Amino acid sequence: MLTVHGLYTEYPNERGDIVKAAQDVTFTVEEGRLFTLLGPSGCGKTTTLRSIAGLERPRAGEISVNDRVVFSSSKGVFVSPNRRGFGMVFQSYAIWPHMTVFENAAFPLQVGDKKYTRAQVREHVMRVLTAVQLDELADREATKLSGGPQQQLALARALVMEPALLLLDEPLSNLDAKLRDRMRFELKRLQRELKITTVYVTHDQSEALALSHEIAVMNQGRIQQIGRPRDIYENPVNQFVADFVGNTNFLDGTVIRAEVQDRCILDTDIGRLAVKFAKPVKANDRVAISIRPEDVELAESRPAGENVWQGTVEQKVFLGEAIDFRVTVGPRSLLSRQHPTLRTPVGGSIFVRVNPEKCVVFSAS
Ligand SMILES: Nc1ncnc2c1ncn2[C@@H]1O[C@H](COP(=O)(O)OP(=O)(O)OP(=O)(O)O)[C@@H](O)[C@H]1O
Ligand SMILES: [Mg+2]
Q1: Alpha carbons 213 and 200: distance in angstroms, whole number
Q2: Does the first or last residue of the chain, that is N or C, have fewer Cβ atoms within 10 Å of its Cβ?
Q3: Are residues 240 and 268 located together in one domain of the fold?
Q4: What pLDDT score was predicted for residue 338?
Q5: Residue 39's domain spans which residues?
């Protein structure tokens, strides 16, 4: 188990000012789980990961793995990176040239403090090479491997020491889209199989949603929300998270009246909107509403119920398994993801319906 508490890491920039790269970063990763730091470029993901690795020295906070403190500002503890016993793979994974696949994977065992016999080395290396499905390529020259297998080899090398913690910084970003998708499945299978506690860094929200047990969404050095992928997607705590994770439609609203059972009626650009909102509100409060494209329902004949508007199809994008419709409702254009069986042509009239329960409401920032 990894715990990071109150981590604060800063850098001086070229002008001598202080960049607060990670601020009050606090999270826990349970044994065997994959935890992802997700956020836009410059939000502090790598800084957080490097701080855990011991490659940066934070100004404040505490980091421990399985109750062993590896960094604590208050207790004056700083364990050097090579003594933390973590496995790491970075974006620019370096495969050693002039070495075979086997020799690359064996290298950490040969340079470490612990001595292994030839038989032990062989056993450890073949076990990790089998896990990443490179066992049959053990004698191949490592630089002759293509991108995917090289990535697998970097992973094998990080795993061979049986690290207490695996740290991965955008390990798939050098691969082309198709290979990245495949490696994403491979990585997930391997992590689940070996049950190795992992911190994964990415700016790719679909990668984060696909791989993680839990996600921390970061912005400007701070964690905005921690949750399971589905929670983050369905119940974002603020507009930043709703916008960064997945596509969404934002509307501005003003409360007309609060009703019973967490319901309220809003005035928006597209008309009156009934929503479910747990926080107490009063008339004239300003809010923002996020509605996911798959929750914007479309129908050619008028559906029953509330939150129904008439609109016009403005644009369609065929995606194979789905169609994205842009529909104009009043002064607004809404994005709606539909099954390809809906054939309404561009310019056609269409009805839009939104379930009040699918509207995520935020107090206006
Ligand atoms: N060595 C450094 N010296 C000075 N500033 C740095 C240094 N490393 C990072 N920063 C700054 O700290 C902030 C966080 O950077 P960091 O690399 O952690 O972001 P990131 O989330 O990993 O971004 P990316 O997705 O681009 O990799 C940025 O403002 C960055 O410019
Ligand atoms: Mg980074």
Answers
A1: 11
A2: C
A3: no
A4: 96
A5: 2-244
What ligand 1 atom has the least distance to the C-alpha of 40? 25
3-class secondary structure, 360? strand
Q: Locate 315 and state its tokens.
A: 């644009």
For the CA of 203, the nearest atom of ligand 1: 25
Say how many Å lie between the CA of residue 41 and the centre of ligand 1.
8
Task: Indicate which CATH number applies to the domain containing 208.
Answer: 3.40.50.300
**Tokens read off for 216:** 């921390």
- What pLDDT is stored for residue 332 in this prediction? 95
Cα distance between residue 217 and residue 203, in whole Å? 10
Q: Among the three residues 211, 244, 277, which one is the final residue of a domain in this structure?
A: 244
Are residues 131 and 270 located together in one domain of the fold?
no
Atom 25 of ligand 1: nearest residue by CA position:
41
- What are the pLDDT digits (tens) for 240-294? 999 999 999 999 999 998 887 788 999 999 999 999 987 888 889 999 999 999 9
Give the 3-state secondary structure of 266-295. Answer: EEECCEEEEEECCCCCCCCCEEEEEECHHH
Domain edge (last residue) among 244, 269, 294: 244
Provide the pLDDT for residue 95: 80
The answer to whether the beta carbons of residues 325 and 348 sit under 8 Å apart is: no
Q: Write out pLDDT tens, residues 75-121.
A: 999 999 988 989 988 876 678 888 999 999 998 888 877 889 999 99
Overall size of the chain counted in residues: 365
CATH number for 333: 2.40.50.100
Q: Which residues of 286-297 are buried (b: 16+ CB within 10 A; e: fewer)?
A: ebbbbbbbebbb
Indicate which residue's Cα is closest to atom 29 of ligand 1: 42
Q: Are residues 306 and 356 in the same domain?
A: yes
